[in-house]
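Sequence only, no structure available. Ideas?
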Amino acid sequence: MSNSKPAIVKSASRALDIIEFVVKCPKPPTFTAILEHMDIPKSSLSYLLQDLQNRDYLQIDTETRVYYPGLKLIQVSAACMNNTNISREIWQGTKNLSDALGETAHAAILEGRHAVYIAKCQGTKDLSAVTNIGFRIPAHTTGVGKVLLSSLSEEELASRFNNVELERYTEKTIVSYPELLVELKKIAKQEYAIDDQEIIPGGVCVAAPIYDKAHKMIAAISVTVPVIRLTDDFLQEVVKKVRAAGANVSMRLGRT
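Reply:
I predicted one. C-alpha cells follow.
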C-alpha cells in the first residue's frame, strides 16, 4: 500500500506551506522565490497560487510581481485574535498594562530565534521598533525575546543559534553568544528581563513571562519607557507592574 498522501491532502498541505512562506518571508516573494523554496512542480504551484488569489488569501502586485497576504487571510487572523481565549486574554492584559503606565505595551511569542509580536497597545508616546502585529525581531535584542529564550534549555538554544551571527541594532545589543547565555540564566532566575536600549536608542523595555495552565511559557508581555523618564524608583514600579501583568494573564489562562 502506498504511503503517499491523497492528492487533496497534499494540495491542502502545499497551500498552507505557501501561505506560511509568504507571511514569514522577510520581503514579499516572487513566483521564482516561492518555486525555489517549495518542493512543488511549477504547474502545480501556478494553480495553487491562482486559487489562493481567487479566494483572497494572497494578492499579487501586478507591477513588481511579488506576493502579499490577502484580505481574507488578514480577516481570518483578526477573527482568530478576537475569538481565541488565549489571544483575547493576552491582548487585554497588554492593553491594561499600557493603560496603567501610559506607555506602549507589547506581547510576543517565540518563533525559532525571533520574537513575533502578537499585540501592541500604543501609549502617549510610541517609542517602539514594532510597526505592526506579526512583526519579527531577533529575540536576543528585545526584552520579550530574552524572556522567551530564557525558557529554553542550553541544548535547544544551541540548536537555534548554531552558526548564527547575532545582529547588532545599537551599541548596547548583546552580540556575544556566551554573554547572551549568562543574561538568559539571570532572566530565568529573576523572571523578568530588561532591554536597556538594545533594540532602539532611548527606549528601555521591561518584559515578563506569560504561562498557560500547564505552566509552559507561551508568550511574554512588556512595556517600553523613554530612558529620560526612567528613574530608579520608576524602573522598580515598571518591573512590578509588568510582572503583575504577566502573572495576571497567566492566572486567567488557568495557571495556579
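The chain has a mean pLDDT of 88.
Hope that gets you unstuck.
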